[in-house]
């Protein structure tokens, strides 16, 4: 048979019995971000929870302002403010049970503080120290992670291990929109879904990765849609609506706890401040855009709801502000005290058995510090 004859006899056939492995429809996110405040759903929200969220938002806003002020006074090396994103920060902290774990990024100091980490200790790393500053096990808050998205595989590992051990633990990991472009995001979500790990991913889509807008990061319909490719549900929520973020995260955490596997939540929010105190946001965005987001401020949205439902009055608002002022004053006072640092600490906890090179460097530094101490002890005008 000639090749042409063979071709003539060829009958294309479909791949054998192909089916989608799971039905993607239930995994798809809503077409618009889920909202509670100002909608009918708000009537079902627990008044005590709304009041608690409000108090924490006001305190969080003040914390952000105070920490930013401390950078200007040289008390803090850098501060990535979460002003405008407080609803995500606070809801993430409040939604977890005591035994659960939070995996924050560098922007999520507020979530760590709302979960109980000492506000000064939470700033240790940003003060320029070499260590985390707080005991991650005390409140089950992993170290604030500066390398983008590296906290995500950590969260999956912890959640998977807990499940294997039969421990009732859910991990909630926070990441920015820019972080979703990292390989670690992909690896974490893939393993989480394959293992059905009890983990929830909260993407705070604040519009920018430093100066890079989301449109330059991805052509996906939304970041929540990425969930479908991994085989987990994606949820889209108004990230400035504290009640909505809390509800969506609570559902996802409950699902994870019940063995239902991971969820990816995308919260649409906006970073009202610059990337950090070292960034000039006017170089890449218009003031008018910022102003439209000020109209959709998380504190404003919740305050309107509470007021409309008679759940807060002027005294209540003042009490929340006074509490936030006292919180900021305490932070200021404690941050204005010089920390006592021992440079020799640099060598502690590196290896159980220090390497010869480290021992050599340690000896050099010790000699230098001793020489300096001797010099300082000499009477003025001594043999210098
Ligand atoms: C692995 C890695 N690459 C690059 C950086 C530098 N970097 C720091 S913040 C940032 C932008 C992150 O944006 P996004 O994830 O949206 O978080 P946001 O800062 O907006 O909270 C970049 C690229 C880093 N920290 N880690």
Automatic annotation (TrEMBL):
<keyword id="KW-0670">Pyruvate</keyword>
<dbReference type="InterPro" id="IPR017596">
    <property type="entry name" value="PdhA/BkdA"/>
</dbReference>
<keyword id="KW-0560">Oxidoreductase</keyword>
<dbReference type="InterPro" id="IPR001017">
    <property type="entry name" value="DH_E1"/>
</dbReference>
<dbReference type="InterPro" id="IPR029061">
    <property type="entry name" value="THDP-binding"/>
</dbReference>
<feature type="region of interest" description="Disordered">
    <location>
        <begin position="1"/>
        <end position="29"/>
    </location>
</feature>
<dbReference type="GO" id="GO:0016624">
    <property type="term" value="F:oxidoreductase activity, acting on the aldehyde or oxo group of donors, disulfide as acceptor"/>
</dbReference>
<dbReference type="GO" id="GO:0000287">
    <property type="term" value="F:magnesium ion binding"/>
</dbReference>
<keyword id="KW-0786">Thiamine pyrophosphate</keyword>
<protein>
    <submittedName>
        <fullName>Pyruvate dehydrogenase E1 component subunit alpha</fullName>
    </submittedName>
</protein>
<dbReference type="GO" id="GO:0009083">
    <property type="term" value="P:branched-chain amino acid catabolic process"/>
</dbReference>
<feature type="domain" description="Dehydrogenase E1 component">
    <location>
        <begin position="64"/>
        <end position="330"/>
    </location>
</feature>
<dbReference type="InterPro" id="IPR050771">
    <property type="entry name" value="Alpha-ketoacid_DH_E1_comp"/>
</dbReference>
<dbReference type="Pfam" id="PF00676">
    <property type="entry name" value="E1_dh"/>
</dbReference>
């Amino acid at each position: 048979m000639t090749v042409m004859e063979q071709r003539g006899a060829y009958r294309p056939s479909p791949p054998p019995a192909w089916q989608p492995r799971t039905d993607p429809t239930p995994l798809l996110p809503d077409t618009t971000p889920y909202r509670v405040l100002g909608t009918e759903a708000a009537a079902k929200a627990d008044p005590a929870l709304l009041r608690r969220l409000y108090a924490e938002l006001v305190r969080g806003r003040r914390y952000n302002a105070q920490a930013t002020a401390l950078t200007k006074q040289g008390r803090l090396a850098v501060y990535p403010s979460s002003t405008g994103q407080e609803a995500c920060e606070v809801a993430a902290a409040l939604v977890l049970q005591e035994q659960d774990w939070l995996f924050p990024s560098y922007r999520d100091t507020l979530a760590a503080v709302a979960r109980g980490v000492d506000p000064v200790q939470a700033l240790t790393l940003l003060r320029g120290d070499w260590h985390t500053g707080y005991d991650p096990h005390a409140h089950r808050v992993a170290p604030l992670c500066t390398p983008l998205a590296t906290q995500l595989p950590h969260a999956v590992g912890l959640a998977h291990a807990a499940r294997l051990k039969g421990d009732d633990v859910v991990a909630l990991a926070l990441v920015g929109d820019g972080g979703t472009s990292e390989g670690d995001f992909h690896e974490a979500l893939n393993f989480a879904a394959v293992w059905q790990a009890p983990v929830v991913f909260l993407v705070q889509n604040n519009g920018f990765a430093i100066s890079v807008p989301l449109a330059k990061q991805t052509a996906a319909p939304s970041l929540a849609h990425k969930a479908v490719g991994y085989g987990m549900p994606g949820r889209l929520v108004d990230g400035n609506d504290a009640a909505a973020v809390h509800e969506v995260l609570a559902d996802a955490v409950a699902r994870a706890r019940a063995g239902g596997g991971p969820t990816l939540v995308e919260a649409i929010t906006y970073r009202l401040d610059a990337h950090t105190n070292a960034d000039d946001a006017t170089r890449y965005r218009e003031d008018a855009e910022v102003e439209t987001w000020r109209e959709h401020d998380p504190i404003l949205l919740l305050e309107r709801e509470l007021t409309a439902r008679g759940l807060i009055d002027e005294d209540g608002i003042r009490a929340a502000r006074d509490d936030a002022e006292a919180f900021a004053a305490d932070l200021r006072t404690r941050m204005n005290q010089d920390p006592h640092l021992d440079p020799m600490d640099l060598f502690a906890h590196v290896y159980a058995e220090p390497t010869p090179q480290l021992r050599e460097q340690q000896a050099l530094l010790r000699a230098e510090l001793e020489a300096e101490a001797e010099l300082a002890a000499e009477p003025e005008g001594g043999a210098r």
